[in-house]
Design a protein that fits this description.
GO terms for molecular function: monooxygenase activity. The chain is of the alpha+beta class. It is built from five helices and four strands. Helices cover 35% and strands 30% of the residues. The protein has a four-stranded antiparallel β-sheet with strand order 2-3-1-4.
Length: 117
């Protein structure tokens, strides 16, 4: 991920009983976002403690390119497809200032603990 990426985080509250349909539709129409040349990827996460709450995180090359997408017809159609599932939500935007990759594939837990000592 470029260190100067622009990140968008949506918090979405989904109508009770519509969660599975929301997840299915989100995946089915996701390429309307990820196929934009400035999109670096996006994630859908379900809140572990609050039923019906989801977070969508989307990374972009720059704020300018995201805003270009945000005002496009493509984005409007994407939002219209997800709107029937939604009972509330919010959007947070941010500039990524640093990125430290994890090393989940290298070494065991024991090696990590010993290195920390």
């Amino acid at each position: 991920m470029p260190q100067e990426a622009f990140r968008v985080m949506l918090r979405m509250e989904i109508n009770k009983g519509m969660e599975a349909d929301f997840e299915r539709v989100w995946v089915a129409i996701g390429d309307s976002v990820t196929s934009h040349p400035a999109n670096l990827g996006q994630w859908l996460s379900r809140d572990a403690e609050n039923e019906g709450v989801y977070y969508i995180i989307s990374d972009w090359e720059s704020e300018e390119r995201f805003r270009e997408f945000e005002t496009s017809r493509r984005h409007l159609r994407h939002r219209e497809r997800l709107h029937p599932f939604r009972s509330g939500g919010s959007m947070t935007v941010m500039h990524v200032v640093s990125y430290l990759p994890g090393s989940s594939d290298s070494g065991s837990h024991r090696e990590w603990e010993e290195a920390a000592l």
